[in-house]
Amino acid sequence: MARTTRRRALGTLAAALAAGLAAPQVAHAGGAKRGPGPLRRAHAHNDYEHPRPLFDALDQRFNSVEADIYLVNGDLLVAHDPVDLDPSRTLTSLYLDPLAALVRANHGSVYRGWRTPLQLLVDIKTDGAATYQELDRQLRRYGHLFTTYSRGRVHKGAVTAVVSGDRAARAPMEAQTVRSAFYDGRLTDLGSAAPASFIPLISDNWANNFTWLGSGPMPAAERARLRGIVGAAHKRGQRVRFWATPDVAGPERDAVWAELVAADVDHLNTDDLAGLRAFLETHDGTRDR
Prior knowledge:
It contains eight helices and twelve strands. The protein is an alpha/beta fold. It starts with a helix and ends in a 6-residue tail after the last helix.
């Protein structure tokens, strides 16, 4: 099957499964006082490429998911590459509407009884300014579902949207006194004047900052650099994520993940949902409070 056709078939299947499976999951959650806690470090990279976007990650107790978006004919389509764009796979249908329904059923949270917001990392692939304007319009339709910034104060919601990707989104976001989303910074933003109320997350490419890929012990200088980055971010109330870390199952990946957990990196990036869940359940005792 051709790649585009396969992606569209998966998209149709994902939408059908999400619609069919959301209700049983919600009903089950409604019958329990408190469900299993989310794995706070677990971040689903390219979440939309799984058979059931969002729901596969939630079934594995992930607390952060990533969606790439394109502005096409006034709507936001979710895909990794332009060739995969499908008008039925929108941010609204794959993420916003299902999250709103889940939070309603769970009385105000994504994971029933666990109040820390789920992070929705939105990676903009088209012009940042124009795409963000449409994203802002869509997020505002959901009222108190999303964490908001209003005139100097952050008001926590069940979901926190963080905008990544095209850097042109920054200017219109900074100009707002009221926002339903926050900005994903880079290491160059660490220690800048921008506060955590605008940049709550610092993300960067692992391969551009570290040479170690899990073979043998981590060089002491690189371990010290990693911990220095995390310490500086945490002191400012910011979280840390690295993409392009090793993601092929094996001892090298486990070694990198172990160093990230030991350094208290906030989000571990993966396409292997079950693999990261198994690792964190064994190696990381932290859960969201």
